[in-house]
Prior knowledge:
This is Beta-carotene 15,15'-monooxygenase. This protein is of the alpha+beta class. It has helices at 12-30, 40-61, 69-86, 95-134, 141-152, 158-161, 163-181, 207-230, 234-260, 297-301, 351-362, and strands spanning 197-199, 263-265, 269-274, 278-283, 287-292, 306-309, 321-333, 338-346. Strand 7 and strand 8 form a beta hairpin. The protein is globular, with a radius of gyration of 24 Å.
Amino acid sequence: MIASYSLKEIAWKRIVFFLFLIIIPNYLVMQVQLVGPVDDMVGLGTALDLVIILPLVLYFFGFMKRVSWLVLFAFVFWGGLLANWMIPNEADGYLSYFNHSVIVLEAGIIVLELVLFIAIVKRFPLLLRNHKNEKNMHYHFLLSFTAAIQSTFSFRNERLNKFQFTLRILATDIAAIYYSLFSWRKSAPSIEQGKGHAFTYHKDGSYLGVFFMLVHAMALEIIAVHILVAQFSHTAAWIVTGLDVYTLLFIISDYQAIRLSPVVLDSKGIHFQKGIRHYGFIAWEQVNGVEENTKYPKEVGQDRKSIVLALHGLEKEQIPYVLKLNEPVEIQQIFGFKKTIQSIYVKMDEAHKFNETVRFYTKGY
Length: 365
């Protein structure tokens, strides 16, 4: 539904600026009542700001390039929810008109989504067959499923192909549910002798302690935040709790995916999937070689044309090696986003063997 674009194409500073510019003054007027008691006309102004002005501003100025109009509808929906929360009862005389408009708008979107859902269901058997075929070429779930999506839902009309972005988001959600709930008896893929080499990067490090700390903190936060928000609204409490549980599933699934998705080097190239954060394939002819990394962790973090196949503890450790690429390569990121990279910083559990394997495969290029 949304054209594929990079996170760098979102104007974060503008979004934050407009959110503060519109939300804070309205909050001070409605909730704090900084200028005195409010009435229906003042409430109407706030409703206009949150349901119409703010969504339009975010849509036209929050992105570096044009995105789907469905994003605007999403902003209107969240603006309506924000208006219902912010405007007190004594000033909500006109709010029902906005609520009805948002309901009609959302009903139209639901109908559109149902049409899309029917189209997906009809092609679902083909998607499963394509995924089965892609699994023979790719070692990791996200890469094989994304390739199956592209081959199953490719249309002559370029606009229809934009639906692939939504399906790639769906792939991330499916991966999160699978890895967090149904993968505990699974083991990492075994590579037949002579057909490739698998390398892990989660055993030699302290990330496991960070993982348990995050899970423990999220579990406590779910309970504490639910109790706190429930004092004001039971509905909001369950919404927040649902989002927190979803976040917890993502944390668990990310570690499980890391454990079950080693970096695989075979005769074709490098297959990688770092949790559910990013994944891709790089052919050997695109790899210049592996060399010692001289950049400090802070400098590595500032390299926007790279990814890091390594896990840190509470403090970032020195990344020992870097894979240099001959040309920019596009990889997939979480929720369907894409990124162009020119280098990969690596810290494998078997560093020496990994380096020797890379040199073996790249010596002919």
